Write a sequence for this structure.
C-alpha cells in the first residue's frame, strides 16, 4: 500500500469523526429548543386552564352577589307590601317579587352548572401543575446534560482538529488537494478498498492491469469510475496468520 494512502485513511477517519461531532454539537441546541418549546406550550395550556377556572369562579361569585342583592330587594319589597293601600299596589309588589325570585332561580341553576363545570377544570389544573413540575425537572436535567455533552464534544473536536493538522502536514500537496476534491464530491468517503477485483465504494470491476498496478503499491491510484483513492490489502493465508501468532 502506498504510504500516502495510510495517511489518507487516517485523515478520512478523523474527518468522519469531526463531522459526526459537529452534527451532534449543532443538534444539541435544537434539541434544547424543542423541549423548551414543548414546556412553553404546556405552560400556556396550564395558564389557559387556570384562566378558565378563575373565570368560572368569578362568574359564580358574581351570581352569588346578584342573588344576595335580589334577596335584599325582595325583603324591602315585602316590607313595602305591608304598606300597600290598594289591591293593585299589592299585586304590583307581588309580581315584582315573583319576577326577582325567578331571576334568583335562574342564577342558582347557573351556579350549579358552573360548579359542575369547575370540577374537571380544577382537576386539569392540578394534573397539569404536577406534570409541569416533573417536566421542568426533566428539561433542566436535559439542558445540563446537553451543556456537558457539548463541552465534551468541543474538547474532543479540539483534539481531533489538532491531529488533523498533523496529518495534513505529512501529506504532499498534490495528495491533499486530491483528498479535498474527492471529499467534497463524496461527502467524507474518500478511500475505498479494492476487493474481489472491484472498487468497494462504487462496485465497478477493475481492469486486470489496473489491479496489478494497484497491488504493487508504488503509486497513488484512483478508481477510474468514482475517482476515490484505492488501496489493496492482500489476503492473509492460514499459514501466515499462524506464523504471526
Amino acid at each position: 500500500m502506498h504510504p500516502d494512502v495510510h495517511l489518507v485513511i487516517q485523515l478520512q477517519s478523523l474527518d468522519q469523526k469531526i463531522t459526526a461531532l459537529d452534527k451532534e454539537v449543532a443538534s444539541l441546541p435544537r434539541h434544547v429548543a424543542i423541549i423548551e418549546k414543548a414546556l412553553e406550550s404546556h405552560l400556556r395550556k396550564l395558564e389557559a386552564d387556570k384562566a378558565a377556572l378563575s373565570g368560572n369562579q368569578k362568574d359564580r361569585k358574581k351570581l352569588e352577589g346578584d342573588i344576595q342583592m335580589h334577596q335584599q330587594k325582595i325583603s324591602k319589597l315585602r316590607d313595602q307590601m305591608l304598606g300597600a293601600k290598594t289591591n293593585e299596589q299589592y299585586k304590583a309588589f307581588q309580581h315584582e317579587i315573583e319576577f326577582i325570585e325567578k331571576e334568583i332561580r335562574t342564577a342558582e341553576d347557573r351556579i350549579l352548572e358552573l360548579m359542575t363545570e369547575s370540577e374537571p377544570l380544577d382537576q386539569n389544573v392540578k394534573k397539569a401543575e404536577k406534570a409541569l413540575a416533573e417536566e421542568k425537572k426533566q428539561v433542566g436535567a436535559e439542558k445540563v446534560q446537553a451543556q456537558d455533552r457539548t463541552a465534551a464534544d468541543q474538547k474532543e473536536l479540539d483534539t481531533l482538529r489538532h491531529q488533523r493538522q498533523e496529518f495534513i502536514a505529512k501529506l504532499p500537496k498534490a495528495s491533499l488537494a486530491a483528498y479535498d476534491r474527492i471529499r467534497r464530491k463524496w461527502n467524507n468517503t474518500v478511500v475505498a478498498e479494492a476487493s474481489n477485483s472491484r472498487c468497494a465504494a462504487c462496485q465497478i470491476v477493475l481492469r486486470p492491469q489496473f489491479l496489478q498496478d494497484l497491488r504493487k503499491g508504488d503509486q497513488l491510484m484512483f478508481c477510474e469510475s468514482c475517482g476515490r483513492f484505492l488501496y489493496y490489502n492482500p489476503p492473509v493465508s492460514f499459514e501466515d496468520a499462524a506464523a504471526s501468532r
The chain has two domains: 3-171, 174-243. Residues 174-243 form one domain. The chain has five helices and three strands. Residues 87-170 form the longest helix (84 residues).
